[in-house]
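queue> pop job 88
queue> type: inverse folding (structure -> sequence)
queue> payload:
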């Protein structure tokens, strides 16, 4: 807790002091116009921070309660999901605790704000749906997840049909549940014919076409899997060697179909790529005041 308080003080000082311009590089090696970079919320897991990118600059930073897992923004709040709890920051940057597990060592792995003001939370072997006041209104047990604490899962999302999708990190499996919370599909990535080995999968999204897009963690790739468990699209390190991919974590899909990826300890920590594997921009690492080791990303607004 002491380290979290020190981190919070440091972040407040940074926010007051300046916005940090980031260096975005286009595919031709020239400077990319920062005006075309979407507004992004970036997760720095190890630094226990969430960061707000506006017009290519880090304009705000927020401390997390424990290691930072995800950051979201609504009209009224910035939601920062840490391993020990979820904090909400209002527009004046006043922080309140929204949710904190009562039992230890429960660890929060992922969160997603819901349309009604509630939230989906993934904790050890359990999905929780919370009401707008942070009270549990639904609990779904997930006994098939291995008890690996931080490697249990990395991403949980509620689907349009009311079901859920989970990336089981250590098991390298994707689980899909129906709206009753019953398991309907398991994708065992280690059993599939993949272009590259997966290792500690991270981001996952159910696409509108019914396929599943997965960030394969230390497998350093994105793969799209159809309903028959066939890989129909992938992005690997050999496709864009200039990125020096070592990890593919959370990602977000823009309205134009491009994918913004958090690449953690890769040579370039973030990048945007089109579906035909053309690089739009890559971000140069700034360990001190910019983006260093991002594990997740979300969109604030599409452009």
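queue> result:
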């Amino acid at each position: 807790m002491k380290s979290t308080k020190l981190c919070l003080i440091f972040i407040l000082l940074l926010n007051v002091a300046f916005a940090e311009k980031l260096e975005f590089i286009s595919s031709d090696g020239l400077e990319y116009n920062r005006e075309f970079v979407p507004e992004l919320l970036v997760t720095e897991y190890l630094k226990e921070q969430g960061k707000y990118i506006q017009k290519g600059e880090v304009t705000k930073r927020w401390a997390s309660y424990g290691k930072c897992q995800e950051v979201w923004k609504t009209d009224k709040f910035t939601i920062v999901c840490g391993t020990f709890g979820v904090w909400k920051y209002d527009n004046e940057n006043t922080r309140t605790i929204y949710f904190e597990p009562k039992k230890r060592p429960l660890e929060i792995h992922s969160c997603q704000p819901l349309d009604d003001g509630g939230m989906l939370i993934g904790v050890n072997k359990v999905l929780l749906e919370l009401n707008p006041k942070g009270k549990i209104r639904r609990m779904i047990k997930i006994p098939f997840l291995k008890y690996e604490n931080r490697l249990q899962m990395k991403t949980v999302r509620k689907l349009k049909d009311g079901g859920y999708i989970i990336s089981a990190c250590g098991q390298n499996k994707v689980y899909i549940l129906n709206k009753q919370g019953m398991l309907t599909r398991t994708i065992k990535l280690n059993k599939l014919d993949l272009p590259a080995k997966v290792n500690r999968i991270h981001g996952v999204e159910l696409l509108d076409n019914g396929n599943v897009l997965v960030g394969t963690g230390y497998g350093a790739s994105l793969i799209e899997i159809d309903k028959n468990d066939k890989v129909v699209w992938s992005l690997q390190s050999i496709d864009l060697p200039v990125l020096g991919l070592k990890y593919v974590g959370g990602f977000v899909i823009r309205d134009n179909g491009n994918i913004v990826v958090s690449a953690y300890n890769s040579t370039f920590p973030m990048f945007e790529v089109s579906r035909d594997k053309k690089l739009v921009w890559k971000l140069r690492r700034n360990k001190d005041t910019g983006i260093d080791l991002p594990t997740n990303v979300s969109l604030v607004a599409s452009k």
